[in-house]
Design the sequence.
């Protein structure tokens, strides 16, 4: 009887669906929109790499750009430094993040829950701000850590130099460790802990259990995280721009930026390098998808298991607590404290008792009174809000068509939405520059081009969140409403949207945050009329106004924290309402 009712509900749902024409019209609009956001820019930069000259994006077909690149010996140095930077930061970030996740999720280390929150704080702090903080800490001339070590130990020269490949790896690896921690921590929570319990009951000590049981079971998850972080290292822009460029250490992203930003621009070099980097990133994403597709072979969660017993580390728990404290100092306390100090001094100076009497708020006053700050803040809020709304609406529509409809081509639509995840921000910036700079429509140099860039860049994240939210809503709810006579708009308004609202709000908040702090594509696409906060900080840093940069960075961190708090409160109120 229940089966017959359910079958009748499905039949009623199909009979009450709109005609095929409106669905096809929506599908067609989404295909066109996604193609314009994803395929067209990538195709344009690929074509431009064969047609661009040094001064223009158009010309006759030629291989001169690639010939110039591969005949230049510095290209191979660029390849080497890019992979060493990406691999080194990946090893450091994955090592720190994985160990941190195991200590917090599986051991009895004191205060571990507090450090869970501490580890997530850097996800809100913009990457450019964290990079600037480490420049203030490890600069060989005025770095706070170097100055302290010289004073305490009596060293004549600075023991650390952030303006080196090792310094770049340290800053990028440390900055990526919170993401690794978040992903590995989630995987540890889902893993069946009974296998670790069995190893412990068989006499294995905690470290042997970790090495022989936990690590092999976590291998697929860790491997996928490694690939994500490795690709992110190749795509990273903040560290190569702020640390690599002054020390003449180039990677792909900084070289693409330099080819476009410096006068005279070399568009041919920029588009060819962008194409090469896009192909490398795409290869990494393909490998990642193959690994995650085979991850079911390592599944251990077959039902609801018992709560895992904490590993008793004995007196070693104080060692792990000390390690957590050191990590908290490195990832949060020291960077933020040195930013605050540098923002209060009249000129660049390491912390000292002599400078306490010269602390001032003048840098904050200058930044607040600087007209560009208000313009950049307004532009960032407008573009980030529009991107969050646009990405959530488009990703929600794509997810619904892909998961709920039977229209031909729906899987291709979903694939189109994920294409930009393999495209680095600098590549996307170069692509949009090549696409819009010659159009009669005034798009380049406006907020519209930033909106298009952010939509392309962050649409895959919105798509992932919308799909995961929609999967959790069973289709029987819509079928029951269809039996009751509700049309599609009523079902969406009364059933789907209220159930999807928490996930969509979370996706909108996340996309707003990453859009507001985005630098890699913004640095290529901004001008006097559409600058944003991250680009303004970069320009001040390049001009050597370090105390003002610190003040603006502190203001940006405070603004980000306030925005996250407000959005979470608004989201909670909307969900509860």
Sequence:
């Amino acid at each position: 009887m229940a089966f017959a009712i359910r079958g009748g509900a499905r039949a009623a749902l199909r009979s009450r669906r709109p005609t095929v024409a409106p669905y096809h019209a929506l599908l067609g609009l989404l295909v066109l929109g996604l193609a314009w956001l994803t395929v067209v820019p990538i195709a344009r930069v690929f074509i431009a790499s064969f047609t661009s000259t040094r001064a223009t994006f158009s010309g006759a077909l030629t291989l001169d750009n690639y010939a110039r690149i591969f005949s230049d010996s510095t290209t191979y140095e660029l390849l080497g430094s890019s992979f060493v930077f990406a691999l080194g930061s990946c090893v450091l970030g994955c090592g720190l993040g994985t160990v941190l996740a195991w200590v917090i999720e599986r051991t009895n280390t004191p205060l571990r829950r507090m450090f869970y929150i501490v580890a997530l704080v850097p996800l809100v702090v913009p990457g450019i701000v964290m990079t600037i903080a480490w420049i203030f800490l490890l600069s060989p001339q005025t770095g706070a850590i170097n100055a302290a070590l010289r004073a305490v130990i009596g060293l004549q020269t600075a023991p650390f130099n952030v303006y080196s490949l090792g310094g770049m790896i340290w800053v990028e690896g440390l900055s990526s460790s919170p993401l690794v921690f978040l992903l590995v921590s989630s995987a540890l929570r889902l893993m069946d802990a009974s296998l670790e319990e069995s190893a412990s009951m068989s006499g294995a000590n905690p470290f042997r259990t970790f090495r022989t049981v936990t690590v092999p079971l976590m291998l697929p998850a860790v491997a996928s995280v490694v690939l994500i972080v490795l690709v992110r290292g190749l795509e990273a822009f903040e560290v190569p721009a702020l640390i690599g460029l002054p020390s003449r250490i180039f990677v792909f992203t900084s070289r693409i930026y330099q080819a476009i930003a410096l006068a005279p621009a070399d568009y041919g070099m920029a588009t060819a390098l962008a194409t090469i980097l896009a192909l490398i990133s795409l290869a990494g994403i393909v490998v990642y998808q193959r690994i995650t597709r085979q991850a079911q072979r390592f599944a251990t969660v077959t039902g609801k298991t018992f709560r895992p017993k904490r590993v008793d580390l004995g007196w070693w728990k104080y060692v792990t607590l000390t390690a957590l404290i050191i990590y908290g100092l490195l990832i949060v306390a020291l960077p933020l404290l040195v930013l605050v100090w540098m923002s209060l001094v009249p000129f660049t100076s390491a912390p000292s008792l002599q400078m306490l009497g010269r602390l001032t708020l003048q840098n904050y006053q200058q930044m607040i009174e600087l007209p560009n700050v208000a313009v950049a803040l307004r532009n960032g809020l407008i573009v980030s809000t529009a991107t969050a709304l646009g990405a959530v609406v488009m990703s929600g529509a794509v997810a619904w068509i892909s998961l709920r409809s039977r229209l031909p081509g729906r899987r291709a639509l979903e694939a189109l939405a994920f294409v930009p995840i393999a495209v680095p921000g600098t590549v996307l910036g170069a692509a949009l520059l090549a696409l819009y700079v010659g159009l009669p429509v005034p798009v380049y140099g406006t907020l519209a081009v930033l909106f298009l860039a952010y939509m392309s860049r962050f649409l895959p994240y919105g798509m992932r969140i919308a799909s995961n939210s929609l999967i959790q809503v069973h289709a029987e709810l819509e079928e029951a409403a269809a039996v009751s006579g509700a049309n599609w708009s009523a079902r969406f308004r009364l059933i789907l949207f209220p159930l999807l609202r928490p996930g969509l709000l979370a996706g909108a908040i996340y996309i707003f945050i990453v859009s507001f702090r985005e630098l890699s594509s913004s640095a290529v696409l901004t001008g006097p009329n559409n600058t944003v906060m991250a680009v303004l900080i970069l320009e001040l840093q390049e001009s050597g106004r370090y105390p003002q940069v610190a003040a603006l960075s502190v203001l940006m961190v405070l603004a980000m924290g306030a925005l996250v708090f407000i959005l979470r409160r608004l989201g909670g109120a909307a969900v509860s309402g």
In short: Confidence is low (pLDDT under 50) at residues 1-6, 8-21, 295-305. The CA atoms of residues 11 and 173 lie 54 Å apart. The chain has 24 helices and no strands.
